[in-house]
Each structure stands twice: as structure tokens, then as C-alpha cells.
Specification:
Cathepsin D, subunit A, domain 1, 2 domains, nine-stranded mixed β-sheet, 32% strand, 30 strands, Peptidase A1 domain-containing protein, signal, mainly beta, globular, Peptidase_aspartic_dom_sf
């Protein structure tokens, strides 16, 4: 059985948008990853890692400083779960700093940072098992965002029944603790792709440097300037806060093309789950997956389509851009993913030109066993390159609209929900600065291979 490799999304950002005269609160969804200068700053790390010989530590998610003195954790957003959970330091008790390879450092890195309740002078245990209350600051928020009585859960087991995921979680689902704490009465969340820099400012420079800001989340109303045209609205299914095996966000896929070739196949339309968890891989039915492999001339390595990067199309007209069309029964909505995002170059000593597409086969037994969301999946980055996403828990619906990005040359008033990046200096129709940001983020993402 081949080992399945999947890619973890890099560089996201969260933005809280306050209407009218209120201020906009920027909350980066960051990723520290890679050897050398892009590692996690030591002041944020409980167990710093020796970065010689290419070792490094990674984090991704919303950076929270919890307790007194502050302890640093990163929590990836979950839109179907309402609670925030962090990992307890006891999870790494069986490791020591003397272990070969720095096991305790890798342990902390795997858990996105650790929290020790007994080391915080302001922590108070809740009447609920595994929950507590403490002071919290959302690091790098602009302006500051903090609360002295933030309620969160502490996970001290490998497979906590409350979440079913080894990572910490930042609940933004119905009745979100975070929303009730900082934005009571607000149940709307907007997601916007900025193309490598936040429209509301970046965190200050630091050494090691902070990563790119690529996404923003907007609370307390949607930013009308970030999207245009008619909304493509879908119902939110029954929330599943205890597991992400039943994600309530779905789309009916009616057409897929790669380059100039249609690849939906004889199976016809299918329903796909939308994965907002931060993964980068789209999961297609086997018939579509096989046609994708044929259309791009890929070979399969570790369960994923792979390529000699120097042999990939260099003419924009021949690029392996991926387009997916959804339908609500009356109208269509199409999103596109450029070749630069779809196929990422990986650094392998024996294969310097090795590249891999973020596409998996939904019917592969390894995928079926290991992927938390069963069946076909459309990843967040696929939607966000051309779309603005709105989630409205109060209305029980979510929607897509054509995003207004910094690289758009012009926006027609009656745009019909398709988006093409601005023609620029870089091949593939992406402006030079955006292209460099995307290539950098893709290269870093490709450096982190997770075994499912």
C-alpha cells in the first residue's frame, strides 16, 4: 500500500471587520514553516529546536497568547465546531529534549504549541470537564483583541472525542465561543483571498520574518468592496460539532475541465464536501481523477499525480489550469485554479525537478481510511482564488460571489461569477508580485508532507 501524502495549507489570515464607525480588527491566520529563517521565533516556543541539519518547527492557525505569563498556541479555524481547544503540555511528557532528532520539539510542533494550565496564575478550571477560563490575547490583532475570561478546552489525549482531530481548533461554527466573547450576537463570517498581502495591513517585521498574509476572515458583516455580482447561495447542512466526518458545506459539481479538456467523465455530476479545515488537496471520484492524470500526463507517486516540473506547459494557453463548475439547479458558478497553485514543486534530493498536483482519488482505499471527510472534496484554496465566501449561521446558508482582488484589471457591474487574474508580467496571467507570493507559499506548502 503506497503512503498517501497530502499538503497542508500555508499562509492564511483572519480579519475581523467592524461596520460603520467601528474599527477593523485584523487577526492573521499565520503559518511558520520551513528550515532556517522561517522557523517559529524562539519567544513563542516552549521547546526551541536546533535548526542545524535542516530541522525546523512549524505552526499554522490563529496565534493566541493564553495565560499569565502568556503561552503561545495556534488554532486552525473550524466552521462546523463552536469551541476552541488547545493541546495540553502533558501530551509531550513521554519525550525529552535529549531524544535523537529532538522528539519533544517535534511533539510541540505537531500540536501547534502547548498549554500548561498549572503554569498560568490566572487560569481557572471550569465546572465542565477539560474546560477552563483564562486571559487571552489574539497575537498581532490590529487593533488589539483580548479578553480576561475566555473559555476554552484543553485536550490531553491523542484522540479527544470532542473534536476527533489531532490539531487544536478555533471554533467558528454556530454558537461560537469566540464570536460570543468578542462579537456577541454576530453569526456571519466572510472569507477573502488577498493574493499575498492583507488589505488591512501586515504584522510588523520580525526576525525570523513573518509569513505572507493570504486570507482574511471578516466578522460583523461582509466587506461589500471585496465581492461583486450575484451570490451563489447554498444551505448549511446540520452542524456536526463533534466530528468533521459530516461537514455541512457541500456543492453540486456539474463540470470540471483541466486546460482545454473536460474531465467530468461518464459518472456525471456529483456532490462534493467543501473543506474549510486548511487542507490544500481536492479529492475527485476515481473517474475524474483518472481523466485528470491522463490530461496532464502525470505519473502517480505516493498516491498523488506527479511531474517533471521542467516539462510542465510554459505557454499560458496550454497550462493545466483547473476549472470547476457548480450548479444550484437554476444557475452555475465557476471557479478556477491556476497551474502555479494546482501543481507545486517539491524539494527532493534525487528529483530536483519534482512537482506534485494537490489532487487525490476519493476511491483510493488509503484516502477512504485516512481522510476525515469521506468522498469527493473541494479544498478552500480552490474556491478562494476567484471567490469571496460568506457564511451566515443565523440564516442557515453560505454563499459564493465573484471576488474583487487587487490584481483585477476591472470589474464589470454585471459580472457573471467568473474571475480571471490580471494579465501581468508573469506567465499564467498572474501579476509578478502575486506570482512570487503564490510560488513562495506553494513551495513552502510542498515542503510539509503529512502521512495520513
Amino acid at each position: 500500500m503506497p503512503t498517501l501524502s497530502t499538503l497542508r495549507t500555508l499562509t492564511l489570515a483572519l480579519v475581523v471587520t467592524i461596520k460603520s464607525a467601528q474599527a477593523t480588527v485584523v487577526v492573521p491566520y499565520v503559518s511558520y514553516i520551513g528550515p532556517g529563517p522561517i522557523g517559529v521565533p524562539d519567544e513563542f516556543v516552549r521547546y526551541p529546536m536546533n535548526e542545524t541539519e535542516g530541522m525546523y518547527q512549524g505552526r499554522f492557525g490563529v496565534h493566541l497568547a493564553i495565560g499569565t505569563p502568556p503561552q503561545h498556541v495556534w488554532v486552525p479555524p473550524h466552521f462546523f465546531s463552536s469551541e476552541t481547544y488547545v493541546k495540553g503540555v502533558s501530551l509531550c511528557d513521554n519525550y525529552t529534549t535529549a531524544d535523537p532528532g529532538g522528539s519533544i520539539e517535534y511533539c510541540e510542533s505537531d500540536y501547534n504549541g502547548l498549554f500548561a494550565a498549572n503554569e498560568s496564575s490566572t487560569f481557572e478550571m471550569s465546572s465542565e470537564r477539560s474546560f477552563g477560563v483564562d486571559t487571552v490575547t489574539v497575537s498581532d490583532a490590529v487593533p488589539g483583541l483580548e479578553n480576561n475570561e475566555f473559555r476554552f478546552g484543553i485536550q490531553t489525549t491523542e484522540q479527544p472525542g470532542a473534536v476527533g482531530d489531532d490539531l487544536s481548533t478555533f471554533g467558528l461554527g454556530p454558537n461560537s465561543t469566540f464570536l460570543q466573547t468578542f462579537f456577541p450576537g454576530k453569526e456571519q463570517v466572510g472569507i477573502y483571498y488577498t493574493g499575498g498581502s492583507s488589505t488591512h495591513g501586515k504584522p510588523p517585521y520580525s526576525a525570523p520574518p513573518r509569513p505572507l498574509v493570504v486570507y482574511e476572515l471578516e466578522f460583523d458583516g461582509y466587506n461589500q468592496s471585496h465581492f461583486t455580482g450575484e451570490k451563489f447561495t447554498q444551505p448549511i447542512g446540520p452542524p456536526a460539532p463533534l466530528s468533521n466526518s459530516s461537514n455541512p458545506f457541500t456543492l453540486n459539481v456539474t463540470n470540471i475541465s483541466v486546460g482545454r479538456n473536460g474531465i467530468l467523465g461518464g459518472g456525471g455530476p456529483f456532490v462534493a464536501t467543501v473543506d474549510f479545515s486548511g487542507r490544500t488537496s481536492n479529492i475527485f471520484p476515481s473517474s475524474v481523477y483518472d481523466l485528470f492524470v491522463q490530461a496532464t500526463g502525470a505519473r502517480i507517486v505516493d498516491g498523488m499525480p506527479s511531474y517533471n516540473s521542467s516539462a510542465l506547459p510554459s505557454n499560458p494557453d496550454d497550462f493545466y489550469d483547473l476549472a470547476i463548475t457548480f450548479s444550484d439547479g437554476t444557475r452555475d458558478f465557476t471557479v478556477s485554479l491556476p497551474q502555479e497553485i494546482l501543481i507545486s514543486q517539491l524539494s527532493r534530493p534525487n528529483y530536483p525537478d519534482f512537482a506534485m498536483a494537490n489532487i487525490l482519488n476519493a476511491d483510493d482505499p488509503v484516502v477512504m481510511r485516512s481522510w476525515p471527510v469521506r468522498g469527493p472534496v473541494i479544498a478552500l484554496n480552490q474556491l478562494m482564488f476567484t471567490s469571496y465566501i460568506g457564511i451566515d449561521h443565523a440564516a442557515g446558508e453560505w454563499w459564493l460571489a465573484k471576488a474583487v482582488h487587487p490584481w483585477d484589471e476591472s470589474i464589470a457591474p454585471t459580472n457573471n461569477n467568473t474571475s480571471k487574474p490580471k494579465e501581468g508580467a508573469a506567465a499564467g496571467g498572474i501579476g509578478g508580485n502575486l506570482n512570487r507570493a503564490i510560488v513562495t507559499a506553494s513551495a513552502l506548502a510542498a515542503a510539509v508532507i503529512l502521512l495520513c
